Amino acid sequence: MTAAQKIIIDTDPGQDDAVAILLALASHELDIVGITAVAGNVPLALTEKNTRKICELAGRRDVPVYAGAVRPMVNELVTAEHVHGKTGLDGPDLPEPTMPLQEQHAVDFIIQTLMGHPPGDITLCTLGPLTNIALALVRQPEIAPRIKQIVMMGGGFFEGGNITPAAEFNIYVDPHAADVVFRSQVPIVVMPLDVTHKALTSASRIAAIRELGSPVGIATAEMLEFFERFDEEKYGSDGGPLHDPCVIAYLLKPELFRGRRCNVSVETASELTLGMTVVDWWQVTDRPANALVMRDIDDEGFFKLLTERLARL
Ligand code: BDR
Ligand code: CA
What we know:
By secondary structure, the chain is α/β, with parallel strands linked by helices. It has one domain: Ribonucleoside hydrolase-like (Inosine-uridine Nucleoside N-ribohydrolase, Chain A, Alpha-Beta Complex). Helix content is 37%, strand content 17%. It contains twelve helices and ten strands. The strands form two sheets. The protein has an eight-stranded mixed β-sheet with strand order 3-2-1-4-5-6-10-7, sandwiched between helices. A two-stranded antiparallel ribbon has the order 8-9. Strand 4 (122-126), helix 5 (131-139) and strand 5 (147-153) form a beta-alpha-beta unit. 53% of the residues are buried. The model has no long low-confidence stretch (mean pLDDT 96). Beta-D-ribofuranose is lined by residues 14, 16-17, 41, 80, 83, 127-128, 153, 162, 168-170, 243-244.
């Protein structure tokens, strides 16, 4: 058996973040060294609490959870209660967590872990604004060559944006952090809206998860039912896009996704297109490729994987 891949999940739960965390916790191929929370969908006090709620739901009080940045590097925090509800995790009625929050700051944890492991050991899975990762890179640039890869949910190109016409939420909230990350020379895999808008829940997909009958299956179905209502109304679709779990699914089954290596640059100046990920898909510039940008997903395979794995919890 090959050794489990060591990962740090950086997250702002968020129902889709929660499902991504559950998918990772259910997968023996992944060794979650720690989960770091960042301000995003809701303020940090809620994202760190929601992270602990999810670990407890999965019976994994042993996973250390760290709190990171309370706000983006330069801009004011923009949140998304209109999508995720007031708590960020509206839907199921989960108990207040009792497992402790680690005392160490998330940025210190990320640096210490990368410096303490051999180069190429740790993958960063980013499911929210990139503030914690950029702060770590700025504070200790020696970590960059030690990161195996960053697999991120963020950006959108062909599909446009979801928080403005040009920008996807995670990049828009902290475009300066995203800029630092895309310039870091760390290998990056991007799951943009172009992919996640093809990973749509549906009544039957949620029913299959509910029918697992376990506390995890039922809570996940309740989260997804709450989460999808916003996008169903917005896009007129049957179901909502399950963004963040695509990151974890890529680590488990990369063959579910298709994309190409190209340059991604982040707009940090223009008021109109702030946070836009400008993807040189057709290689019309000589900017070097800095990311593997995904565009397609086998959505049937993705939901099969997700449901099978959640059944293990
Ligand atoms: C991203 O923004 C958040 O609302 C979701 O959790 C996801 O990470 C999608 O744009
Ligand atoms: Ca998220």
